[in-house]
Recover the amino acids of this structure.
């Protein structure tokens, strides 16, 4: 039981770190894009690395934001069918949809690992950053989302079992 508590605390700490990282990266993205726009239109000069940096930051912001959104189960979804179905059928549909999400995320993790490893030796032209370092956020975030989704599936299954026991 102590291991579970430790893992929960570690997980919560990771989410807090991701929140702060998201704020920092978003702020950097805004500063770089705004500074480049001002430089381009007021001074007829733009930073040669700004487009590349903003693209890389945007990738990281999107994926970290996806992890934080998935944690709260705030992604857009169509749950009208789940609400219309009886409780048991709705929960089974939820579990099935979560299983499909895990499968898709696993495919993305595999592709992300391939892209990361395959591009560690290729540097971006303006920043000189290995593309593999940019792409590594894909398998990291998708793996976290797999864990979140499996935990959600377990919670839904437990609720389903509890409802079944209460009904009998």
């Amino acid at each position: 039981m102590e291991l579970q508590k430790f893992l929960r605390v570690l997980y919560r700490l990771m989410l807090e770190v991701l929140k702060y990282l998201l704020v920092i990266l978003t702020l950097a993205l805004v500063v770089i894009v705004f500074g480049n726009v001002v430089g381009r239109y007021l001074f007829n000069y733009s930073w040669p690395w700004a487009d590349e940096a903003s693209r890389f930051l945007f990738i990281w912001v999107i994926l970290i934001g996806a992890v934080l959104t998935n944690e709260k189960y705030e992604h857009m979804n169509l749950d009208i069918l789940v609400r219309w179905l009886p409780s048991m059928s709705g929960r089974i549909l939820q579990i099935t949809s979560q299983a499909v999400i895990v499968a898709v995320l696993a495919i993305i993790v595999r592709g992300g690992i391939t892209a990361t490893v395959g591009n560690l030796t290729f540097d971006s032209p303006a920043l000189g950053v290995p593309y593999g370092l940019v792409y590594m956020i894909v398998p990291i975030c998708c793996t976290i989302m797999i864990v979140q989704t499996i935990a959600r599936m377990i919670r839904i299954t437990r609720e389903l079992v509890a409802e079944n026991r209460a009904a009998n």
User: Anything to note?
Assistant: Residues 2-167 form one domain.
